[in-house]
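Let us practice reading a record.
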Amino acid sequence: MKRAVYALSALTLLGSCVESASDDGPKTTGAEFNEFDFTTVTPTTLSVDYGSQAEVYFEVYDAEPVKPNAEGTAYVKVEDIEPLYAGYTDAQGRFSAKVDLPAYLGKAYIYTPNVHARTLLTAEKNGTALTASASMPETAAAAAVTRAGYESAAVTGDGWKTWLGSYDKTYGRINYEYKYSGKGMNLKEENWQRLYTAANKVFDTNKACPEEYRSSSDLYLEEPAEVAITFLMSNTCWNCSMGYYYYDASEHPASLEDIHPVMIFPNTQDGYWSNDPNKARKYRGVERGTAVQLMFYPKIAENSMEGATTTFPKGYRIGFVLATNAWGNRLPGFTGAKMYRAATSSGLSVNDKGVAYKQPRTAVYRYTNSSLGLNSVICSFEDYTTDENFSDVIFTMKSNPVDAVVDIPSVDEKPGADDTKREVRLLKGIYAFEDLWPSRGDYDMNDVMVKLDYVKTLGNKGIYEESYLFKTFNNLAGLENGLAFTLGGAAASADLEFSILRPATKDEPSPEYEPYAVGRDGSVILLTPNVKQDMGATYKVTAKYASPIAEEKAAVVKPFIYRTDDEDLTPGLRKEVHLPFEAPTAKADPKFFGTSDDKSDPASGRYYVRAESYPFAFFLSGATEVNLAKLLDPTNEKTPIDRLYPAYSGWAASNGADNADWYK
């Protein structure tokens, strides 16, 4: 019988069971106990290949985590969706490991915010394997052209010079790529793929570029220098043109009409546009890693190439400009040259109406890493579509002397420096308990419900910090149930921090986590003796590591509920309810095993099993409050779970082979 009824919200840890449960649910299996463990987790071999020759941070979802923006030019992140897993590939852009994922996951969506990799991949499940690949045939068919002789509007309209050399008139692919002759300094960044990691420290497709890297200042030469650029990537639907210009630093140009741009790349489309790389590849004009040496023309204002040299004078500034969609042979659906121009000079960028921008439309910084032999200036453009990630076209510049370019922000990585760290919150799922064990209960599976989330701070060297968050819900339970868990992995021997986030109130509308004292007995953590004491609270357990740990040493938690004040308990022991087949702690009172509806056999290591198709507890991997709204609805109290979720019966009867998504 219920001892009390408590007021609840629409989302609720719901009510204690009653002995007089309905007999209309699943019947006995005919065996001594049901051998089905009611698991909703499947160890899955996850394989991801970006083909990037650089590491990639990625996240795994069970629904599409991005959607096209209104213009269809880029992806935007879907709000309020949590990944099921997150990790890093190796230096070749590959990942393969066995990870625990929801059993219902037949198709996964692999997302990355890294600028150099394809934003969204899909993986279809084959047996127990999920495989995703960004590779595309190198011989992708070129787009059919309806006419020959394409040209850039930057040439025909703005008068850009094409003095560096020739290019084909269909795709704008240049014939003047820089090749190191073996003499002097190599101006091409041969380690350009390693710069993707550097670029990802600043650029993120889902975030605005940090203000300190946005720059309207051109690159100043404090001594005579040779200069070349190496194209790193583009991630845009547009077929843009990119050029450079230069001027005496004492004579800043007043407008675009005052400069004399020289074409570098007529078509910066590299064929890796994340929304549709298969289409984009047919219109590519440049390969990643292509280098071009810049030339100085002393009489360019006179429209003369006389005196051309590879050495730029001291005291000059070099600027760069991007003309959006200026190349004539463009991706279908994204036609029409834009008036938009992004320039590195202050006041020279203009919008599509020709009006000058006041704010920077480019980003620039120097990246140095002596252990990798890298000392390069990285530049990027924000093109016609303003998403503020400044990653639409990215290139690197080298000069000879190498430090001739000054007055720009710097990212200097020392040998052995920590890798880039990311904090990510992962959805684990929801635990649901029947609290009248060893008796049968009413099978509404809502006496205690706990949502488990996992937060980890990780880099390519491993996990630096991890937290588990146990969110409770209001409930109708008459019994006073405690919430606890056993802790495994590296966290079991680490120093732990405990905190609690209590629900918002009228007096405290925006509560924050505050320190919280818990009971601990070795690897057993007693979060609260009564979940009703802080109804709806979230308990947080955090482990911080002096050095990163490997994924296989990550914390493992096994929540359970318990009581210590039942009259039939042996003094000093407790009643515990765990998942099927999960062993109890040393403080569990053994006299209840094998009694009433419980079919445990401690001698054979079998615990918390029944003969029927309802467990005493289960974990629903990947479940959210929305998925389990029926269980959290107080009007459904005492309604067996198979009535609320009709597909449950087929799942239980098939030992999980059918209807794995019954709760989604």
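A brief commentary: The chain is about 5% helix and 30% strand.
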